[in-house]
Amino acid sequence: MCVGLSAKVVSVDDDTAVIDAGGAKRKVSADLIEDLEPGDYVMVHAGVAIAKITSDDAAETDEIMEGLN
User: pTM to 2 decimals?
Assistant: First the structure.
């Protein structure tokens, strides 16, 4: 099973973004997303931001993941 992680973009530098996922910050590849800006929400899989999502999508994903614990 593949699981994506929702995260908020903190900063973008060329093809790399710093994301905040539940308080944990990390660098991910942003090669697949055009016009990515701080404040955007993304779905991350295997260290790659794969899609922009809405803040509502991020909240729903976080809620589902918390329910799995």
Answer: 0.84
Rounded Cα–Cα distance for residues 5 and 9 (Å): 12
Q: What are phi and psi of 58, to 5 degrees?
A: -65, -45
Q: Which residue has the tokens 């614990």?
A: 69
CATH number of domain containing 36: 2.30.30.140
Q: How far is CA 4 from CA 13, 14, 43, in A?
A: 22, 22, 6
- The backbone torsions φ and ψ at residue 68, rounded to the nearest 5 degrees and listed phi first, read -80, -15
Query: Domain of 43?
Result: 5-68
Write the pLDDT tens digit of every residue in 13-69. Answer: 989 999 999 899 999 999 999 999 999 999 999 999 999 998 888 878 777 777 776
Domain count for the chain: 1
